[in-house]
Amino acid sequence: MNYNDLNSNELLSHIAGSTQATALMERYESLTALARADESELMQIPGVGAAKAAALKSAFSLAQKLSQETTTEPPLLDTPERIANLLREELRLLTVETLVVVLLNTRRRLIKYVRISNGTLDTLLVHPREVFRPAIAANAAALALVHQHPSGNCEPSPADISTTRDLIRAGQLLKIEVVDHIILGARTTERPKDFFSLRENGFFYA
């Protein structure tokens, strides 16, 4: 049933009953006037007892709360720093390499992120179908790859670079852009950043 197609009487009848709904609208003439009535007034309508009066007041209170509700936008993930910040703490203490796929909409805002694969201490094996299956299911426009190096050294391995390029090519075929691959590690005196962006550092070509 599409409730948007129902008129006020029909909607009220689901709460108070058909006869009572008609009587309520005849007495109050508008939903605003009806919403202002207190429970004792509503109970003057034949067939509207305490339970139905309470249900009516609850419905109007819910409608008011809905009108005041604000939606928090998902986080914007349009830089390597923001992507790293999203997952740094979650991956920091893991002792094996773990790949997370961050799914993004057309405005580069987060849809969700999904853990895809756990490797050995320093090896991560992943197949494109594992990466893109959740992206297709979520209707994602783009995705970012994130994994951590338990050693703390966030420089990419040859396998990291090769896998990234394979996934870029797969994304091009599927029309799902791979926007970056972030490797999380640890800061050192020589390396002020605790992450490495393959796109930022020129490795992002298929």
Task: Walk me through this protein's architecture.
There is one protein chain. This protein is α+β, with helices and mostly antiparallel strands and 206 residues long. It folds into two domains: 3-68, 5' to 3' exonuclease, C-terminal subdomain (DNA polymerase, domain 1); 80-197, Cytidine Deaminase, domain 2. 43% of the residues lie in helices and 17% in strands. It is built from eight helices and five strands, in the order ααααααββαβαββ. The protein has helices at 8-16, 18-28, 31-36, 39-42, 50-68, 80-92, 128-137, 158-174; strands spanning 98-104, 110-118, 142-148, 177-184, 195-197. Strands 2-1-3-4-5 form a five-stranded mixed beta sheet, with helices on both faces. Helix 8 links the parallel strand 3 (142-148) and strand 4 (177-184). Helix 1 crosses helix 2 (18-28). The mean pLDDT is 90.
